[in-house]
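Molecular record:
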Amino acid sequence: MPSERPTTDRKALQVNLDSRRYGSFAEIGAGQEVVRWFFRVGAAAGTIAKSMSAYDMSVSDAIYGKCDRYVCRQRLEDMLDREHKLNLERLRESRGDSTAFFAFADTVSARNYHGTNECHGWMGIRFQAHPRDEDSQIIIHVRMLDKNMEAQQEALGIVGVNLLYGAFFMHHEPEQLLESLLDNLSTQRIEIDMIEFSGIAFRHVDNRVMSLRLVQLGLSNAAMFSASGDVLQPSEVLYKRPILVERGSFRPVTHVNLDMLSAARESFKKEADVEEDRIVQLAEITMRNLQANGDIDLRDFLARADTLAACGMTVLISDYFEFYRLAAYLSRYTKERIGITLGAGSLAELFNEKYYTGLEGGILESFGRMFKNDLKLYIYPLLDRETGTLTTVDNLSVSPDLDKLYHYLVDTGCIEQLDAYNPEHLSTFSREVLKMIDAGDPAWEDHVPAEVASVIKRRGFFGHKAGVTESRLAAMLPPTPSIGMPANI
């Protein structure tokens, strides 16, 4: 049987009783909810060098410098920088040989009196894993889901204790650390939609894998990372921006994927109130797609991530198989227009009523939720290579019972046919390209962008048989285990 998780009190006391740990707490916004646990359990004098809360904005600016927003990553980084630097300046000479210093900080917006604000916060710890060690750091973004301020404050304190405990005693097992962040809590109370590990203790951590794990473990329904591999907090990227999404397997990225997005962008930027230079483009992969073969193969996941990165794409991993759930998630962050581009074959599947049996209102409820916030579907044609005919919005066949609904959505502009596509790419199908790569057929390179082909050959992705030099490079890569988890959609 798995070992029982320690209580929050026990975690806080274990930190306090560890004579190596000494540092400061700085908390802005919701009060000193984290440090309170360490004072309450006793023996805090061995752990806490300083505790403070710069609640007033002018005071906060005077200490940490001016900032456009007070609940943001930049403010958190400023807090960690200053507090950790002060600890080292003041204490390193007297006790640095036996003490691993740390600075914990959070900046939080809990539920206000009128209940009108977004309840979220940034939380982080900068620490030495061992005395005189180089710094390591963990930063998380949390959304507080309780309905009253007192419960939110309690949940925030528990997460903070979990973060400190994990940093000190589980830094060598970052995936276990990640899983432990909701000990003594539930996903109904706290969502963690961003985590970033950095520094000497986490030099082997790939934060893209940690983003995947957030969704896989249910700590969040979605996670995001950039082409450079940096993890992103969704609201920081999507806030009040028009959003264009392409959902796919990207196994591998083909000319069709890029052509579909390019054609959709041409139509999307013509929409009223859409400023082209503010459009956020996302390549979305669902957990159901990643778990198509039962388990998640991390090497396969990273192959998709690396080839998307080669194309400069920002990646969204989501647990939103149903399009209406994806639409609701994006609408959480923006009131601007949202576009989703997909192929005609996927559009036909969208009108299959078997996917909506779990909704009381069936497909009508699903579409009502999906299209209520200026969302539009942009449809890429499907080529029948035997007949040479194209399936488009104009000739797509749906169930007779849904024919009127379909044409209503087309006539009102909710579904739009893409015209700015490149006909040369219509004969490319990713499953066939994948088979060609595995079979060693060099013709596969004709179907993918040059930068994608280069990454696949260099890293031996998707079963590519690398040459002598490439094989040696691939052999140098650390083995990537498969992480299995039952589908939960």
Q: What stands out?
A: Residues 467-489 have pLDDT under 50 and may be disordered. The chain has two domains: 8-205, 236-425.
